[in-house]
Amino acid sequence: MTAFALDDPFDRDKGRLPGPAGVLRAAADSIPPSGLVLLGILSVQIGAGFAKDLFHVLPPSAMVFLRIAAAALIIAAFARPRLRGMSMRDWAVGVGFGAILAIMNLTFYEALARLPMGIAVAIEFLGPLGVAVAASRRRLDLVWVLLAGGGVALMAPWGQSASVSWVGIAFALVAGACWAGYILLAAAAGRRFSGTTGLSFAMMVAVILIAPIGVTTGGADLLQPELLLIGLGVGLLSSVIPYSLELQALRRMPKHVFGILMSLEPAVAAVIGLAILGEILNVREWAAIICIVAASLGATRTQKKGETPG
């Protein structure tokens, strides 16, 4: 769930990457940038798959708390934000960034609990797609909007469906709207915070906001060592590793190519859902995912040179 969010603001300080990226830099330099993006996508979706597989042990809100807390601790260790000297606008942007991050992750995991992974990610992807379309404002973009709308219509449980629910779709749509807001706030944070400190600050805010819900729903289970380790793993796979890989890739490839590759994320999510969770999609659901992937590819591919979301 990192597509487009790192497209500009966190690429600003290229000599100061998160710690994990520094450790992996030598190895990453030997991998083509397109490979780094695909590895980042795989990492995000594998993390989501492992998290969903534990929803019978921990509710989605508790798993979100573990994921964000683990990622926040790791990122803060290498990019600690300076609170002194921050203006009221800096605080407003940072807190807003963290709040949207918390809501985005919470609603996405709630959608994930009710939908197959491929469906949840495809619907959520309407957020960055909407930002890309709004940034260009060309007649051709109407085609991508209609194509994406057709994909959502194909997913909707008009009849009886065991794998798709209206509540899950609603959660995924809210997550998508938050993703759009996240892109815009990430850009604002990038202008007010150096390097990845804006992301670090937002993670801390997100932990504070999500903690009451996560602790209440997770209870004593959150203290189990094996679940804490899994939460750490999900935080690494879903946040720290992909952020680092994407930052490294963005240093070596055009941003529109990055966006095109990220458009494959819903299809990758569907494949990971099948491999890890045994989620088998029907032909109509695969057609819906293909429609949204095609719409995202089209909107990204036809952007004017230098035109970026947010």
UniProtKB/TrEMBL annotation:
Q: Which Pfam families match?
A: EamA (PF00892)
InterPro entries membership: Diverse_Substrate_Transporter (IPR051258), EamA_dom (IPR000620), EmrE-like (IPR037185)
The UniProt transmembrane annotation reads 57-79, 91-109, 115-135, 142-159, 165-185, 197-215, 227-245, 257-277, 283-300
User: Which keywords fit this entry according to its UniProt record?
Assistant: Cell membrane, Membrane, Transmembrane, Transmembrane helix
| Chief location of this protein within or outside the cell | membrane
Give the superkingdom in one word: Bacteria
Annotated compartments: Cell membrane
The segment(s) forming the EamA domain are 167-298
Q: How does it sit in the membrane?
A: Multi-pass membrane protein
User: What is stated as this protein's family in its record?
Assistant: Belongs to the EamA transporter family.
* PANTHER family associated with the record: EAMA DOMAIN-CONTAINING PROTEIN (PTHR42920:SF5), OS03G0707200 PROTEIN-RELATED (PTHR42920)
Q: What is this protein called?
A: EamA family transporter
Q: Which organism is it from?
A: Nonomuraea typhae
